């Protein structure tokens, strides 16, 4: 299959997938018996006030009409107005998303090289002591829930040692890059989990590659050490590992919600968590849709990278 | 040629590490399960100043509202573990049921269901949980259902693959040719062959479920204050960590020890059941 056909097919599949996910997002938040009116009108609103709120929010229409109105708006880039604060949802997302992307980018910049190096090193020694040490250590870190890692790092580095700020506040209208030290703890937490998961995946892919006949052939030709690892094992292991990094990026979305909440970092995850706490349905739906789209995009990017890196296709050069 | 298994010896003895992990699991389980009946005081009654250090009558000090930390610790584990067990059971039932059906009935309908399952798997689990928490009234059931649903696609894929392997061996074909009904085929030919895989997979799902239910508590989802919950205790007491670190460190240590031990154990068990995909556990 040629590249353009492959890309076209995958992009075409993206549209119905996102549409189906939007139905799920809308259905989960709108149709379940939560009390949106109570959240907006307040707990001691009169019946007339509640009716006025229902009228204003258009909650008396049937679900299909409401979904179509919401989805129609979303296609045009209008995700409605947040209940609390009254700002447009797409503006809120546009102001918070770059902060989260910066954090995810930093975490990936640490995660990818480190997990490839560690995974390759352990995978080439599958079953030996070094491999067991790395595998067990990585399993230990991967076993920790993100908020526990975050709390532990926060307590140690910001609390006891006082090296880093306790809260990742971004000045109003400023960028996190104005005060780069606030990025360290959130990025470190995300990277810790990412490296743990990534190393496991790269390790098992490398261990499988090492056991293959072509590596045996290379060994018999006298290739060894770093050259064997980088030139022979890595290309075979990288394609499956790339798809795994797509998974990790998906996990970063979940991790970001937790990590941003712990450190008070003003990204899209913190915004989502607060929107859920306030039952701000338009904001939750908008952010959820954007996160779904981001996850789909990463999966696609990872698949593209895996295809490009697969040595069997001969398209690496 | 069969690729060498990524682990060392799939058939070697469990080893001291695994026994340690089992011990830690049992210890934390004992605290969580035996804690509520054994706790001396009330977990919600104010007994002293906030963030007081350990002292007479208060072996571990107090939390941010001056409540007895020891009592809250003993009461707070139950909900996290019970929800995780419930969610794992839900995911395994749905996944095994759906997986067996899809593995045997490889028709057009099955393809469509698999597409829907793949769709659900795209959802980051935490996002699914937050969405259901927004729509449903605050309660533990929403957390249980969300965690269960998030794990179901992975369970289903594993069971489907295992069932297909069994279906391809010819037992099923022979049994069908003999005139056995589908229920008998599932009961006598399929289930005994996939039971190990399904149980090992349930272990992996349990690891993820413990993470998610603890995170739900941390994020304030599920039954709210004043009930004790290890996850939420960490969040509540974070501002006073400098005054008395115990209310943050102890629940974190219990959760961390349990999560790590279960993860190591599940990994050892999964290693023994060949062909199990463990990659979905970390989402």
Order of helices and strands of chain B: HHHHHHHHH
Q: What is the top-level CATH class of the largest domain in chain A?
A: Mainly Alpha
- Calculate the terminal CA-CA distance of chain B, rounded to whole Å: 32 Å
Helix share, percent of chain A:
over 70%
What proportion of the residues of chain B form beta strands (DSSP E)? under 5%
How many extended strands of chain A? Answer: 0
Main sheet of chain A? none
Biggest protein-protein contact in the assembly:
A-B, 67 and 57 residues
SSE succession of chain A: HHHHHHHHHHHH
Q: Based on helices, strands and strand pairing, what is the structural class of chain B?
A: mainly alpha
Please give the domain count of chain A: 2
What multimeric state do the chains show? Answer: heterodimer
Distance between the termini of chain A: 18 Å
Strand content of chain A: under 5%
Mean pLDDT of chain B: 77
User: If classified by CATH, what would the architecture of the largest domain in chain A be?
Assistant: Orthogonal Bundle
Rounded mean pLDDT of chain A is 78
* Biggest beta sheet attributes of chain B: none
CATH 4th-level superfamily of one domain in chain B: MetI-like
Q: What's the name of the CATH homologous superfamily of the largest domain in chain A?
A: MetI-like
Shape descriptor of chain B:
elongated
Reconstruct the topology from this structure:
The complex is a heterodimer of chains A (317) and B (283).
Chain A: H1 3-30, H2 36-41, H3 47-57, H4 63-75, H5 89-123, H6 129-143, H7 146-160, H8 181-210, H9 213-220, H10 225-263, H11 268-277, H12 281-309
Chain B: H1 15-38, H2 69-104, H3 108-122, H4 125-135, H5 140-167, H6 171-178, H7 182-218, H8 230-237, H9 246-272
Give a description of the structure.
Chain A: One of its GO terms (cellular component) is plasma membrane. Chain A: Its main location: membrane. Chain A: It is found in: Cell membrane. The complex is a heterodimer of chains A (317) and B (283). By secondary structure, chain A is mainly alpha-helical. Helices cover 75% and strands 0% of the residues of chain A. Chain A has 12 helices and no strands. Chain B has a domain at 78-227: Orthogonal Bundle (MetI-like fold). Chain B is mainly α. Chain B is elongated, with a radius of gyration of 22 Å. Chain B is built from 9 helices and no strands. Chain B is 69% helix and 0% strand. In chain B, helix 2 (69-104) packs parallel to helix 9 and helix 4 packs across helix 5 (140-167). At the A-B interface, helix 1, helix 6, helix 7, helix 8 and helix 10 of A face helix 3, helix 4, helix 7, helix 8 and helix 9 of B.
